[in-house]
Amino acid sequence: MDDEQRDDTELPALEERSDAWLVGRARELLAVIQVSPVLERVRHTAEVDRLLAEAQHRGEPRMVAQLLRSAVAVRVVNNELADSAEPLLDELLAHTRRHGLVVLQADAHALRGRRLLLAGAEDAALSEAAVALAMLDEDITPDAQFGGRNWDMIMAATLMDIGTVLTQLGVYEIADQVMNRANKSIRASAGPHLISVHLINRARLLVGWGLRLERISEDERAAERFATAAAIAVAVEAPFRESLFPRDAHLAAADQNPVIGAALALAQPSGTHIERLRGLTESRRYPRELVIVAIALARCLEHEGREEEAVEVLGKARALMYHEAAEPTLRLCLIREYARLSGPDGGERTTSALEHYATELEAQLWDMRESRIATLNTRREHERLSRMHGTITRQALQDPLTGLPNRRALDERLETLASSPANHPLAIALVDLDGFKGVNDRMSHAEGDDVLRVVASTLRDALRGSDMVARYGGDEFIVLLPGAPLTAAEAALRRAINAVSGLPKDLSHGVTLSIGVVSLRPQETAVRALARADAAMYQAKRGGGNDIVAISGSDADEAAENRSGHGADQGGGHRAGNGKHRSAHSTDGDRQAKADDPGWVLREAT
């Protein structure tokens, strides 16, 4: 049974499906939705949402990003579901920013541009396209975790989404450059479906460009665009037969896709296209298809001397497009064609005035086009420079190995949190890796670096978004948990300990965490709070590691003193999880020296 025919009770058990299947199924549904009636679009969108929920349950960031992208894309192809795309767009942008998925983040901006065009917000859509282009202008290293072929497909899809926004805005020259860039990724890895999508989008761009050139009497250049679009219409036949689009295997692509059928007719208008175009007029789903097919059909009817029928076709399309905001450039092409074919029925004076008005309008719109190109380039450069500045700023506050905030960033953040009562209680934890020295000794420093990266990522993901995890140097990290009472901080950090200890041994090499956590006291300096956290952490290490010790304010003084004193079991901190009490006794002179060294601890925060 086809996926389109099964009901919800027959849908597959998603938890048994592979990650690749979830992503592939979402792509298939996106292809189906574009040619489906409204009710079927709603049903298919619900299935995409189920796929997204399963991806989020599994939690792999790259898969979640791809499914979020699909959930947005199925909503911005038409007005019926566009409003529900906004929260998903926000989630996609936040998710891609957090995980550094720059290409999918650029795609999120492009998809927001498509959403804005549905609402008629052309300037805002242009800004989103500029942001997306600026992001892709960066030197982006392919993400090996996507796999080479999938990376190329993601890059191509992002570029095509940007090109679609620019095409709808009528910025054809830059849209053409973007589509050419997409072609490089498609040539490298794409299958027949993505090739079909790209060729159809290219044909649509060229048809719109040709119609636009006609409006300024550039007929020869317009004919060149139509001829190229027709060549593409011929070339798309083979990949279209193997694409994901629902189709009739006995019919040509030109008989099933409005853009392809119209491209052939506009290149050589004749009566042979009329029946095909009438059928495509009935099956079209989107405003752009309505305009392109109506103009192509009207020209074929005009070629056969059936001007009245041509005017009727254009009149109906004009009425349907009257309130349509998504295709401003094509709508003007339709109005011009209608005015051209209306003839002298209203009198020569009326016709002449209409033509004059249209000429003036064309001149103004052409100036607007030039302005848009300049605006796009300016915003693109601004965004590029802003991102470059932001990158430099981030690098100054970021540990290059783990990507976590560095000591300078931690310094600033702790000072900010400590000075605001709204962030209290404020828990401060010192995290040290158990067994890390052995990894470096047994293997290599490169393996040790890999362990640090894995542990840093696991620690970060185990905590709240508002918590800060910073690398403090070597194998030590500091965690700030604003608004967390000591017991809540213990529970959160216990989850981090379990997450690290549960890592596959080929990733962690058996490394675990020892954590000491304290709550910042009123008027306490960062120096003192970190000394207390260090004492608690060392107590966890003395107990065998892979544990957490929390020290309250009254216990901390004694525990800190015991680091250079004598004896055990004198009170002090408590070890989360087993309830044993130990002092923070220490004979480790190096660690004591670090606690006393002003260069090691943070500057005081008041």
From TrEMBL:
InterPro entries xref list: Diguanylate_Cyclase (IPR050469), GGDEF_dom (IPR000160), Nucleotide_cyclase (IPR029787), Rev_trsase/Diguanyl_cyclase (IPR043128)
Sequence ranges assigned to domain GGDEF in this UniProt record: 424-553
GO cellular component: plasma membrane
Bias-annotated ranges (Basic and acidic residues): 585-597
Protein name: Diguanylate cyclase (GGDEF)-like protein
CDD domains found in the cross-reference section: GGDEF (cd01949)
SMART domains named among the record's database cross-references: GGDEF (SM00267)
